[in-house]
Each structure stands twice: as C-alpha cells, then as structure tokens.
C-alpha cells in the first residue's frame, strides 16, 4: 500500500490532513476517493493506517485507524553521510539509495576536487529538489523517517563538525595509505557505547586530496579502504553506508 507524508502539525492521534504535493498525489495521481484506506507517515518515524474522508483541491482529510510503527526518539546507530558533491544524476542517485539503506543525515561537501560548482543563488533550489528526492525515496521503500539534509559545507568545516559528533570514518584508497579495511575499523569501535554516532566521509569525482586526508587524521578521523578496485563516489557511499549499518546492527 502506498504511503504519504503528513506534516507533524497536520497529524493527531485521531486525524490527518495531507496538503500540497501529497494531496495532489492522492487525488490526481493515485485518484483515491472517500472511504479508501491509505497509510501516512510523519517523517519522524511514525507510520499510521487511515481512511480518507474528504478529498478537496488543496487538502485530503481522513481519520487514523491504527499505528503501524511508533515514532522513536533515537536509533542504535545514527549515520551521517558527508558526501563530496557529485554531478547531478550521480548525487541524486546517492541521495535516493542513502535514504533506502537508512542513513540519518546527509551533508553535501565542497572540496577542491568538486566538479560541480554550487552557486549561492541556486543552492536553495537544489536543496528543495534534493528534499523531494528524499521524500520520494522514503515513500517508495516504506521508510517512516526522513534523513536530515543539511546545507552544503566546506570540507574543513564538515570535518570539525563530524569529529565532535562521534566516530568519524573517511574512505581512502589502500594504495594511498589506508591500512585498515572498513570492517577492521568498525571492529575496534563497535563496543564503545550502545548508541553510536558515526560520520562517513566519501569524496567527489577524483576523491579527496592528500592534504584533506592528512587534516582528517590530525583531527581524529580514521581512514579506511573498501577493496582493491576503485569505486565511484556514489557507489562507495552506498556500499560503505550499508556495511556500517549492517555491521552495527541497524540494517
């Protein structure tokens, strides 16, 4: 059954109201009618069954009939993906798949090797488009919470932020000096605490520079490698994210 995103302020224990694009999706795309059963989610981890009572041009209203998944305040692992900004189609693919595997936070990172130049006047439109991709991916895969999409950050600022949040991992080729695999690195830190915040850094086209890797290590990040072959940025991001979440029991 398809699910639709309801704003928290439009959800109560008894009723829901879908507005904007979600109302349009229900009424014009899915052509749902009064009396039909649907599922709604609040983007915070709560998913509910409901029945449509009224279908209007700007809003779809209904009543809640059950709780399918209660919202949780925290998860065992909170994975933040700091991904070097990639070309549009590749970055958007990574956003979609990161949502599907369960990444909690996504931060686009600007580096010297970033091919895409993000202009200030267009960044707002980009974030709006990217958020729509996250919503669509969550609806498709049945995820009840939405990843938090942060504004693009420069590498130095991103590393400083991540280090203060918990375990920080950075993908780096084995041939360039990363001696430990991702699995080995995780094994050293798995027993740190029950609730673990992990920050994962994956570079753009061309990867991170040697200077960025050195800065990351000085700040306290752990470099790791995945395998002998070179993966594209978007592939490495999803492979590493899935391995981390699986290894720490959240996938």
Which secondary structure elements does this structure contain, and how are they paired or packed?
Elements: E1 3-5, E2 15-19, H1 20-29, E3 37-41, E4 47-55, E5 59-69, E6 77-84, H2 88-101, E7 105-110, H3 120-141, E8 148-149, E9 153-154, H4 155-163, E10 167-171, H5 182-189, E11 196-202, H6 210-219, E12 222-224, H7 233-247
Parallel strand pairs: 1-3, 6-7, 6-11, 7-8, 7-9, 10-11, 10-12
Antiparallel strand pairs: 2-5, 3-4, 4-5
Helix pairs in contact: 2-3, 2-7, 4-6
What's a quick, concise take on this entry?
The protein is of the alpha/beta class and 251 residues long.
Protein model, in words:
By secondary structure, this protein is of the alpha/beta class. The chain has 2 domains: 3-69, Beta Barrel (Ribosomal Protein L25, Chain P), CATH 2.40.240.20; 77-247, Alpha/beta knot, CATH 3.40.1280. Helices cover 35% and strands 26% of the residues. The protein has 7 helices and 12 strands. It has helices spanning 20-29, 88-101, 120-141, 155-163, 182-189, 210-219, 233-247, and strands spanning 3-5, 15-19, 37-41, 47-55, 59-69, 77-84, 105-110, 148-149, 153-154, 167-171, 196-202, 222-224. The strands form 2 sheets. Strands 6, 7, 8, 9, 10, 11 and 12 form a 7-stranded parallel β-sheet that branches. A 5-stranded mixed β-sheet has the order 1-3-4-5-2. The radius of gyration is 20 Å and the shape is elongated. The protein starts with a strand and ends with a helix. The model has no long low-confidence stretch (mean pLDDT 90).
């Amino acid at each position: 059954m398809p699910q639709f995103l309801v704003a928290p302020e439009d959800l109560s224990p008894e009723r829901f109201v879908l507005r904007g694009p979600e109302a349009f999706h229900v009424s014009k795309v899915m052509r749902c009618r009064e009396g039909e059963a649907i599922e709604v989610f609040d983007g915070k981890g709560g998913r509910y069954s409901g029945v449509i009572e009224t279908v209007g041009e700007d809003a779809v209203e209904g009543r809640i009939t059950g709780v399918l998944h209660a919202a949780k305040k925290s998860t065992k692992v909170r994975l933040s993906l700091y991904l070097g900004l990639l070309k549009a189609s590749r970055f958007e693919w990574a956003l979609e798949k990161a949502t599907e595997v369960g990444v909690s936070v996504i931060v686009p990172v600007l580096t010297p090797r970033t091919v895409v130049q993000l202009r200030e006047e267009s960044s707002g439109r980009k974030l709006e488009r990217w958020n729509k991709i996250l919503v669509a991916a969550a609806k498709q895969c049945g995820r009840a919470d939405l990843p938090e999409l942060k504004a693009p950050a420069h590498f130095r600022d991103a590393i400083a932020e991540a280090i203060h949040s918990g375990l920080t991992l950075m993908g780096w080729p084995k041939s360039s000096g990363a001696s430990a695999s991702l699995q080995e690195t995780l094994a050293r830190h798995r027993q740190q605490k029950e609730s673990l915040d992990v920050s994962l850094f994956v570079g753009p086209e061309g990867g991170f520079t040697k200077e960025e890797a050195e800065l990351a290590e000085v700040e306290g990040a752990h470099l790791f490698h995945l395998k002998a072959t070179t993966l594209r940025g978007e592939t490495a991001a999803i492979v590493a994210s899935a391995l981390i979440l699986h290894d720490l029991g959240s996938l």
